[in-house]
């Protein structure tokens, strides 16, 4: 898959079938849209393409971080590529794009840059200045300009409309166990392991600490059954998300205890997949009480992993 990060980079491409949307979660609804795009492109001997913004339009319009990311860009690109896409147009939503009228956007970007012959979009897709562009506008202009438009009906699972907003709410409510149903994968946080206060090590539960990325949606404070991925290998683990109130005054972070693991991970990159929340974070009267509770948390997490057939 070839990734274009600016409109100016796009040159010498072949005609395309383009999937239009933010694709910020690449959830099952997005995946269905992308699969249809790829299939249509292959049947028509065209290139399949994804058009998305590298930043969220709502954040640009509001001037602050109102919509947080579900996926890191590299993960988003990897998932999209795995679906067979040829081109990814990952364009910044800037003032030029924001002020462009819907018709100009079609002419200058979709046709002029993307060489679009057909497009797929969701029923609620919006584009152009003041979001005046709609699927109906695309269909009307398609007749005039000779391109085809396919509008995907609302995609539901168990009666729920699958959307990035719905998934963000699941994560924010700690319902991480429901994410695979709608995303097709576990919700995860990744990053470089940093040095913590090392309290866990002194009480027999060494942890790998990740700093919270403020641009990413994160689950509420609490304890979670997780699995930690390091060098492509998954390890059963238990994770605390929070501020460690028993120990002192800390910023929210993610600390993971990996079972039967003795490698040094400082400075290494890991990924923590969240499987189920087991309890809220709370302040204990002493480190001893905290240690006893962590023991219980580990027992519960190990039982979960065993029930799922994971070797510990």
From TrEMBL:
One of its GO terms (molecular function) is ATP binding. Residues 182-306 form the Riboflavin kinase domain. It is an enzyme of class 2 (transferase). Its EC number is 2.7.1.26, 2.7.7.2. Pathway: Cofactor biosynthesis; FMN biosynthesis; FMN from riboflavin (ATP route): step 1/1; Cofactor biosynthesis; FAD biosynthesis; FAD from FMN: step 1/1. The keyword Transferase applies. One of its GO terms (biological process) is riboflavin biosynthetic process. InterPro entries: FAD_synthase, Riboflavin_kinase, Riboflavin_kinase_bac, Riboflavin_kinase_bac/euk, Riboflavin_kinase_dom_sf, Rossmann-like_a/b/a_fold. Keywords: ATP-binding, FAD, Flavoprotein, FMN, Kinase, Multifunctional enzyme, Nucleotide-binding, Nucleotidyltransferase, Transferase. Signal peptide: none annotated. It catalyses: riboflavin + ATP = FMN + ADP + H(+); FMN + ATP + H(+) = FAD + diphosphate. Belongs to the ribF family. Catalyzes the phosphorylation of riboflavin to FMN followed by the adenylation of FMN to FAD. NCBIfam families: PRK05627.1-5 (NF004162), ribF (TIGR00083). This is Riboflavin biosynthesis protein.
